[in-house]
C-alpha cells in the first residue's frame, strides 16, 4: 500500500499530481500535498502558486506579494515604476513612484524632476518655491538668494537685490552704508552709519563724518567718543592708526616691537599665528591659497629638475669611465703587439746567430760527430726560446686579465702569435 498523497504506478509508489516528494522511507516516497490554488512541480520538488503568490516551504502555504509587484522565480519583485521598501519583520512594500519620476532602489525613494523633491508620506513630488532649487531631495536657496522664512517646511528665498551675496555665509549682505530692513537693504541717511547689529542707523558725533559706513575724523581715528590723533611714525588707514613699520604695533600711544617669542597680528602681539597665517618678518601674514599652490608647484619642478640633472651627470660620468677603460685597454693591446713583434725579431736574430755559429763549428772540424752537432743545433736554440717565451707569455696574460670580454680576441691572437713565432723559430732551426 502506498503512503499518503501518493499513488501506485506500474507497481511503484509515486507522489500524486498535487504533491511532491520530500523524502524516502523504507523505499517509499514521503509526499507533501501542495496548498490550494497551487500545483506541484515534481522536477524542482516544490509547489507553484497561482497569481501573484509565492510558495513558502516552511509553512507550506502560498504568500501574497505586495501591491505594485510581480512574481519571478518564486520571488516577489517590485515593478519598474516602483521601489522596494523593507520593514523590520523581513517583509517589504513596493511604492509606486508618481508621474514623471523614476524609482531609486539604492536610496529607496523616487527621483523627482528638477527643482522638486519627493515626499514619501504623500507619495508625490513637491515643487520647490521660487528662488530655490532641489539638492539631495531637499529644497535650498539658489545662488545669490537668501532665506527669510519657511512655508510648509520649504524655504522662502529672496534674491539679493540692492545687496551683496556672501559666499561664506551663503546669505545676502548689505554694503557698508546700508542696513537689512524689511527683507531688503536700506541706505542710511547722510552722516549716519549702520549700527554694529546692522539693524538701524546711528548718527556720527560732532566733528566726524560718515565715510564708507564709519564715523571718521579729519585727523586721527574715531574711538567711538572722540577723535584721537595717531602717534608718530604711524598713519591713518582704513579708519585706524597703523604703524609705518609693519613689524611694529601701537601700544600706549607708541609704535613698539612685540616681545621676544611674540608676533604682530592685527596691531596686537600674539605667541602663535592663527590658522591660515605664517610667520614672516616677525609678523603673521595670511597665506594666499593660489600663492601656496604656486610654491608647491615650483618646489615640485625644482625637485624634478634636480633628479633629471643628477641622472644626466651620472650617465656622463659612467660614459667617461667607459671611455677611460676602453683607452687603457687599447693602449695595453698596442703595447702587447709591440712587445710581441720585438720578441719575434729577437727570436729570429737568436736563431740565425745560433745556426751560423753551429755551421762554422762543423766546417772547422771542431765537432765530435755530425749527429751530435745537429742535435745541439736544434735543441739548444729551442730551449733558449722557451726560456724567453714563457715569462713573456705569462706577463702578456696578466696584462690582459683586467680587460673586458671584448679584448679576449686580442689576448688569444697575441698568445697565438707568440706560439707561432716559437714554431717558426723551431722550424727555421730544423
**Helix share bin:** 25-40%
Low-confidence stretches: 362-370, 402-411, 421-430
If you compute it from the alpha carbons, what radius of gyration comes out, rounded to the nearest whole angstrom?
Answer: 55 Å
Q: What gross morphology would you assign?
A: flat
Tell me the strand order in the biggest sheet: 1-2
Structural class: alpha+beta
Strand content: 25-35%
N- to C-terminal distance: 124 Å
| Biggest β-sheet strands, sense, barrel | 2 strands, antiparallel
The total beta strand count reads: 38
The number of helical elements comes to 3
Query: Mean pLDDT score, rounded?
Result: 77
Describe the structure.
The protein is an alpha+beta fold. Helix content is 30%, strand content 34%. It has three helices and 38 strands. The strands form 19 sheets. A two-stranded antiparallel ribbon has the order 1-2. A two-stranded antiparallel ribbon has the order 3-4. Strands 5-6 form a two-stranded antiparallel ribbon. Helix 1 (289-364) packs parallel to helix 3 (408-429). It is flat. Mean pLDDT is 77; it is low at 362-370, 402-411 and 421-430.
Amino acid at each position: 500500500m502506498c503512503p499518503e498523497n501518493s499513488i501506485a504506478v506500474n507497481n511503484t509508489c509515486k507522489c500524486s499530481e498535487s504533491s511532491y516528494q520530500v523524502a524516502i522511507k523504507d523505499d517509499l516516497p514521503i509526499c507533501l500535498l501542495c496548498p490550494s490554488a497551487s500545483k506541484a512541480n515534481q522536477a524542482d520538488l516544490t509547489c507553484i502558486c497561482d497569481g501573484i503568490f509565492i510558495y513558502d516551504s516552511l509553512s507550506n502555504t502560498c504568500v501574497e506579494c505586495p501591491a505594485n509587484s510581480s512574481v519571478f522565480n518564486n520571488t516577489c519583485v517590485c515593478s519598474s515604476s516602483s521601489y522596494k521598501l523593507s520593514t523590520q519583520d523581513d517583509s517589504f512594500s513596493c511604492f509606486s513612484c508618481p508621474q514623471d519620476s523614476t524609482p531609486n532602489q539604492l536610496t529607496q525613494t523616487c527621483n523627482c524632476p528638477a527643482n522638486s523633491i519627493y515626499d514619501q508620506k504623500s507619495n508625490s513630488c513637491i515643487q520647490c518655491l521660487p528662488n530655490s532649487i532641489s539638492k539631495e531631495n531637499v529644497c535650498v536657496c539658489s545662488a545669490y538668494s537668501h532665506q527669510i522664512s519657511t512655508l510648509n517646511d520649504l524655504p522662502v528665498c529672496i534674491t539679493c537685490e540692492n545687496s551683496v551675496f556672501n559666499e561664506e555665509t551663503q546669505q545676502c549682505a548689505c554694503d557698508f552704508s546700508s542696513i537689512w530692513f524689511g527683507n531688503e537693504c536700506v541706505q542710511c541717511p547722510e552722516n549716519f552709519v549702520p549700527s554694529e547689529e546692522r539693524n538701524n542707523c546711528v548718527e556720527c558725533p560732532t566733528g566726524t563724518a560718515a565715510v564708507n559706513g564709519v564715523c571718521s575724523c579729519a585727523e586721527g581715528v574715531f574711538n567711538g567718543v572722540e577723535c584721537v590723533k595717531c602717534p608718530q611714525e604711524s598713519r591713518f588707514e582704513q579708519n585706524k592708526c597703523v604703524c609705518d613699520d609693519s613689524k611694529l604695533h601701537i601700544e600706549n600711544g607708541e609704535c613698539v616691537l612685540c616681545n621676544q617669542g611674540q608676533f604682530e597680528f592685527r596691531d596686537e602681539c600674539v605667541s602663535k599665528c592663527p590658522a591660515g597665517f605664517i610667520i614672516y618678518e616677525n609678523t603673521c601674514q595670511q597665506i594666499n591659497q593660489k600663492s601656496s599652490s604656486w610654491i608647491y608647484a615650483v618646489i615640485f619642478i625644482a625637485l624634478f629638475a634636480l633628479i633629471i640633472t643628477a641622472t644626466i651627470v651620472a650617465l656622463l660620468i659612467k660614459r667617461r669611465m667607459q671611455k677611460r677603460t676602453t683607452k687603457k685597454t687599447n693602449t695595453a693591446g698596442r703595447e702587447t703587439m709591440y712587445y710581441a713583434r720585438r720578441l719575434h725579431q729577437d727570436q729570429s736574430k737568436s736563431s740565425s746567430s745560433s745556426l751560423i755559429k753551429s755551421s762554422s763549428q762543423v766546417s772547422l772540424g771542431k765537432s765530435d760527430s755530425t749527429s751530435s752537432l745537429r742535435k745541439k743545433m736544434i735543441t739548444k736554440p729551442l730551449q733558449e726560446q722557451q726560456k724567453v717565451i714563457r715569462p713573456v707569455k705569462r706577463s702578456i696574460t696578466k696584462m690582459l686579465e683586467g680587460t673586458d670580454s671584448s679584448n679576449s680576441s686580442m689576448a688569444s691572437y697575441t698568445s697565438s702569435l707568440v706560439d707561432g713565432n716559437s714554431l717558426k723559430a723551431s722550424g727555421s732551426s730544423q
